[in-house]
Amino acid sequence: MPTESGDKKQKSSLVRLCDSWLEAVAEGFSCDKYEKRSRFIMLFLTALFLTLLIIPSPQFLTVNYREGDIATSDIRATQDYLIEDLLLTEKKRAEAEAAAPFVYSLAQNGNIDLVRRFEEALELMRDSGQGGSRRSAVAGVLGVEISPAEFGALSRIRQERAFLSDLGRQLAPIYRQRIVADRSHFAADLRHGIIVVDETTGQGVAGGDYSSCIDLAAARRAFGGADLTQGGSGHDLEILKGVAQRMIAPNLNFDRNGTDEKKSEARAAVRPVLFKMKRGEMIVRVGERVTSEQAMKLEKIYKAKNRAPILTGLGIFGLVLVLCYVPFRFGRKNIRKFHPSNKDILLLSLLTVGNFAVLKLVSAVSTAMGGLFPSIDTASYFYVFPFAASAIIVRIILNSEVALVYCAITAPLTGIMLNNSLQVVIYAFLGGIVGAHGVRQCKERGTIYSAGFKVSVVNMALALCFYIYSDSHFSLQTVYCIAFALLGGLINAVFASGTIPLIEALFQYTTDVKLLELANLNSPLLRELMVRAPGTYHHSVLVGNMVEAGAEAINANPLLARVAAYYHDVGKLKKPQYFIENIRDGENRHDKLSPSMSALILISHMKEGVELAKEHRIGQPIIEIIRQSHGTSLISYFYLKAKGLETPGAPPVEERDFRYPGPKPQTREAGLVLLADCVEAASRTLSDPTPARIQGMVQKIINNIFIDGQLDECELTLKNLHEIAKSFNQILAGIYHQRIDYPEPAYKEKNIVKKCPEDSDNEPPKADPGREDGAAKGGAEDLRRLGMS
Predict the structure, then answer these.
(1) In sequence order, what DSSP letters do the residues of 697-739 get, joined into one string?
(2) Mean pLDDT of the 684-691 span
(3) Contacts with 302 (C-beta within 8 Å, 6 or more apart), sequence order
(4) CA 623 to CA 539: how far, in whole Å?
(5) What residue range is the signal peptide (predicted)?
């Protein structure tokens, strides 16, 4: 059987393997050469996975049921649908079509047209030609058949102008009236409603009294009483009057094309009659005969299932890309603290995809729950979903700026997934903002549950507002929604609290809660430092107090600065006796080493500290501060010693060989640790640490570090340096405050030797050879009056 120690070794090897893999992935993502490419790949894959989750899944309906078919299974609506009621829509369109008015066209110049045709016929009579063919041509022009007698009467007209004028005068009073083909049929159309348009222009004619219209027979009888007297003999004129009488036609005619057009317009103006089918609604049960209404619903689902999925997917994919890219780009360009690394983006992508995968699962579960609890609307179950959990996680692990942009991206996507619901967008966005705000100072796990309760309160208020806004009456359904909203806020806290430790372990993030655990002075690494290197331990604790005060003064992260200060010198555990603060027997091992070797030993403690921090899983932010805690500062003691030992002809002593490899501090917290480290070490060299001397020493050390360019890459301003110096002065003045020299009791003076209460050997401490003495540089660029009130 495997031993317990063997199991521990196996577990530790697995942990180291995971750490090395994650570190390799992080380094690959952070490489400048592949940074933009990696971000594009992550954006593309995130959009692809989100599209697959958001796109409507294929429905289970594989049979297009018809009316009268027997359902072979229970069928429910898997999403909200708006169904067109085809029968009711067709009925309303038929009613609108039947109610459309009839169109009649009015010939305004019917008499003139009739006279014109007689004129053309007379012109044709003058042309050469014989009998029958010419008579047929004349009949074609007149529009009526004519007999040989009528043709002869027309040919004998000698005074054409007089005949045509007389004919026009007799026709004018008749055509001033409205002549219809059938007066009874027109009267029925008139009662239904008519529109009169001009036959030539197609424009509407002003309304008039159409009830006095005459029919065609009455018009012809009226003309039969006319007396033509001009242009020919009385016999011929009487014959031609008969021809003209047959040529009289209605001037108000039914317009079939215009009427059909009006009916089409009326039909098209009727909007489809829709009714809503809710998600989870039972459409038909197994064994039931499908009714006409159920057939319409099933056909809608069947058509939705068979829509072009490629086009739908491309549309959603493009929308997801835009929604992810635009807010991210805006944040990068306009929000000062929005600078997520590629590792951060990978975390955000995984959180988003996981969030939507869970939302998809909840959607499926809520559909199933709809069958078990039909009295609860399936849409109510979405109030339970932990929309704010991801925002809480992002705020704790990263910062509020990233959490805000994250909410701006995920909230619209959530609304798209849930049937384009604006209410869901508002609910998800506000819940995420409240949750992120609730954990802005998360120092313990209980803060997460407090934030979850705040989310519950806002969720319940939103649920109530939604029901008031939708004009719904307060009912049991409203109570369900409010209760689910309360439960959803608490689920946010549980989900976030359980997920954060996992993310910390997998992605090597260090949250404030983790920092509080590391700040425990009884942690294994600090206890070992206290035992093996007590001087370094004491120095680190004092530096921690100093950087915490400085961070509070400049609004940096006091907790991160303090914990980083505790661990910044853990590398000295490898060779504690080579550092002056740990020497107790008076023997300085550097006396037997060359200056270059001593410098190498001092420099190596930084690399060894990083290795120890990784081994104990201290956290990446602290590891980075350990790397940067000395910047590229010069180990002046051994450099000057090496310069003093330099002999002619030997290779010159290079200053770079006596500088720490860096990098320089990149954050304000790292800059604080560097400053406090040097100031605290230099303070031990003061023989009489009065407040004035402490202030001068602090000013000189910070000035030298500034001139050396160690603070060029962090965001510390001159105002920050002034506030830091003031806080250092206060801390050191408190440590080295003056004490009253109490007199010894009279009866003990003969037996007790009086000693200095401040220093047991009455000698000033030796300078740390591993640090600058604070006086190597100076000049016109010195920062004056640092830390002075």
Answers:
(1) HHHHHHHHHHHTTTTTTS---HHHHHHHHHHHHHHHHHHT---
(2) 86
(3) 59, 61, 64
(4) 19
(5) none
Pair type for strands 194-198 and 102-106: parallel
Token pair listed for 120: 């053309």
Q: What is the pLDDT of residue 209?
A: 73
658 in Cβ contact with 600 (< 8 Å): no
Confidence of residue 24 (pLDDT cuts 50, 70, 90): low
Query: Which residues constitute the domain of residue 548?
Result: 514-748
pLDDT at position 32, please?
53
Q: Which range, of 61-65, 555-559, 591-595, averages the lowest pLDDT? A: 61-65
Is residue 330 a part of any domain in this protein? no
In a domain, 105, yes or no: no
Contact yes or no for 512/412 (Cβ under 8 A): no
What is the predicted pLDDT for the residue at 157? 82
Residues with Cβ within 8 Å of residue 641, at least 6 apart in sequence:
595
Question: For residues 714 and 667, is the Cβ–Cβ distance under 8 A?
Answer: yes
Residues 370, 373, 375, 381, Cα dihedral to 10°: -50
Q: At what angle do helices 4-30 and 476-507 cross, to 10 degrees?
A: 90
Per-residue model confidence as pLDDT tens digits over 551-577: 999 999 999 999 999 999 999 988 888
Question: Is the pLDDT confidence value at 45 over 70?
Answer: yes
β-strand partners of 103: 195
As a whole number of angstroms, the distance between CA 343 and CA 507 comes to 8
Contact 324, 309 (CB under 8 A): no
Q: Rounded to an integer, what distance in angstroms lies between the CA atom of residue 686 and that of residue 534?
A: 21
Residues in the chain: 789
* pLDDT per residue as tens digits for the range 295-310: 877 777 766 655 556 7
pTM of the model: 0.61
- Say what the pLDDT of residue 312 is: 77
Phi and psi at residue 698, to the nearest 5° = -60, -45
Q: What is the pLDDT of residue 326?
A: 93
CATH of the domain at 726: 1.10.3210
Provide the angle, in degrees to the nearest 10, between the axes of the packed helices 400-417 and 32-54: 30
Q: Which residue has the tokens 């806020």?
A: 489
295 and 66 in contact (C-beta within 8 Å)? yes
Residue 51 Cα distances to 22, 324, 389, angstroms: 27, 12, 21
319 CB-contact burial (10 Å; exposed 0-12 / middle 13-18 / buried 19+) = middle
What does pLDDT average to over the chain?
82
Asked whether the predicted pLDDT for residue 509 surpasses 60, the reply is yes
Q: How far apart are CA 380 and CA 463, in angstroms?
A: 9
Q: What digits encode the pLDDT tens for the residues 471-499? A: 666 778 888 888 999 999 999 999 998 99
- Is the residue at 619 inside a domain? yes
For strands 102-106 and 274-277, give the pairing. unpaired
The pair phi, psi for residue 41, each rounded to 5°, is -65, -45
Annotate 153-184 with b (16+ C-beta within 10 A) or e (fewer): bbeebeebeebbebbbebbeebbeebbbeebe
Please report the DSSP string for 185-244 in residue order.
HHHHHHHH-EEEEETTT-PBPPP--GGG-EEHHHHHHHHHT----SSS-HHHHHHHHHHH
Place of tokens 């309360």: 486
Burial of 584 (0-12, 13-18, 19+ CB in 10 A): exposed
Whether 600 maps to a domain, the answer reads yes
User: What ranges in 422-523 are assigned the alpha helix state H?
Assistant: 422-438, 446-469, 476-507, 512-518
Q: What is the mean pLDDT of residues 500-509?
A: 86
Q: Give the pLDDT confidence score for residue 2 in this predicted structure.
A: 43
Number of domains in the chain: 1
What are the two backbone dihedrals, phi and then psi, of residue 195, each rounded to the nearest 5 degrees? Answer: -125, 125
